[in-house]
């Protein structure tokens, strides 16, 4: 029996908000960010100038070609790398179309039931409180 290995597409988050599922449609991280309308500077797009330098809050990248621009340990050059793992970048989400996971019918039912249960508990507490106040009066 042979098993295929499954590799999950990395998720790119900005300010802890998931924004991009990097599925390999774009050649670089910069292209993926630009496709989502993330505001990021770029000039050479080849790892020379450092204009696209971005702080990585969590995760790792793989360089397609070794960058020339100098980097701190927590920085990357999106123009010449791709995500190796899920990434959290210190970039603004302003103007970016954010991912919203639609609730499935089961999740909606659970939320409604939970809400009803909470309301019933509040009503029961109020009733118990009014009974105890009446009894003490
Ligand atoms: S745009 Fe020049 S290093 Fe990325």
UniProtKB/TrEMBL annotation:
Task: State the Gene Ontology terms under molecular function.
Answer: 2 iron, 2 sulfur cluster binding
Q: Which UniProt keywords apply?
A: Ubiquinone
Query: Would the keyword Nucleotidyltransferase turn up in this protein's UniProt record?
Result: no
Q: Which Gene3D superfamilies match?
A: 3.10.20.30
* Lineage of producing organism: Bacteria, Pseudomonadati, Pseudomonadota, Gammaproteobacteria, Alteromonadales
Q: Does the keyword Amino-acid biosynthesis apply?
A: no
What name does the UniProt record give this protein? Ferredoxin
Looking up CDD domains in the UniProt record yields: fer2
What InterPro entries is this protein classified in? 2Fe-2S_ferredoxin-like_sf, 2Fe-2S_ferredoxin-type, 2Fe2S_fd_BS, Beta-grasp_dom_sf
Top-rank lineage group of the source organism: Bacteria
In this chain the 2Fe-2S ferredoxin-type domain maps to 10-95
């Amino acid at each position: 029996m042979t098993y295929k290995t499954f590799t999950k597409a990395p998720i790119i988050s900005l300010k802890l908000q998931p924004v991009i599922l990097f599925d390999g449609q774009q050649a670089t991280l910069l292209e993926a960010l630009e496709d989502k309308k993330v505001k990021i500077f770029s000039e050479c797009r080849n790892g020379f100038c450092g204009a696209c330098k971005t702080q990585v809050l969590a995760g790792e990248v793989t360089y397609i070609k070794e960058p020339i621009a100098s980097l701190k340990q927590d920085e990357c050059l999106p123009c010449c790398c791709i995500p190796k793992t899920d990434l959290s970048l210190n970039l603004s989400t302003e103007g970016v179309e954010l991912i919203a996971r639609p609730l499935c019918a089961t999740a909606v039912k659970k939320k409604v039931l939970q809400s009803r249960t909470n309301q019933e508990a509040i009503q029961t507490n109020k009733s118990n409180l009014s009974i105890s106040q009446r009894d003490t009066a």
